Give the backbone structure.
Amino acid sequence: DSGVTQTPKHLITATGQRVTLRCSPRSGDLSVYWYQQSLDQGLQFLIQYYNGEERAKGNILERFSAQQFPDLHSELNLSSLELGDSALYFCASSVGQGNEQYFGPGTRLTVT
Amino acid sequence: LAKTTQPISMDSYEGQEVNITCSHNNIATNDYITWYQQFPSQGPRFIIQGYKTKVTNEVASLFIPADRKSSTLSLPRVSLSDTAVYYCLVGDSSNTGKLIFGQGTTLQVKP
């Protein structure tokens, strides 16, 4: 158990819908990272927050957004969902920036 | 933009040493190079991290040459439980904090 929790574990929704994925980092970690893992694209970095502020952006679509709240939990919002958004979404946390990351169990999103 | 290359798969036998190399040009100058292990339906798990030369911990060693254009993860005496996918993670040369995972190397350990 990494100490990082993600909810929900599974999510099935229809194209065009909007969903919110939630992540609680390990106690004491200030950085939260979001990744997408699909069979054709592998592990893709989406975005990183540090102590509530956005610090780095990867290949995150404009339809996706994220935020980190004062209690350090984070949410990833995916809107106007397309079939190609079906993937595993991982959240990870670390103490600071550049430190080892601890990954959550992931949320499996299926868009039908 | 950083580009990473890893072998897609490798086979080994129990008790052997396994070396997995990740080629990564144009990486961030100040970031660590990190390796992760992933089992099916689980999140990646940290193995080892380094900046230059050699780093060793209780499970692996990491070799990074001076030019930092590659890194080699060394797993001593692998067992069946080391069968997994191994990824390198580097920072992009833009030094904006963007992170890039390698494509992953599937290691199959045979008895």
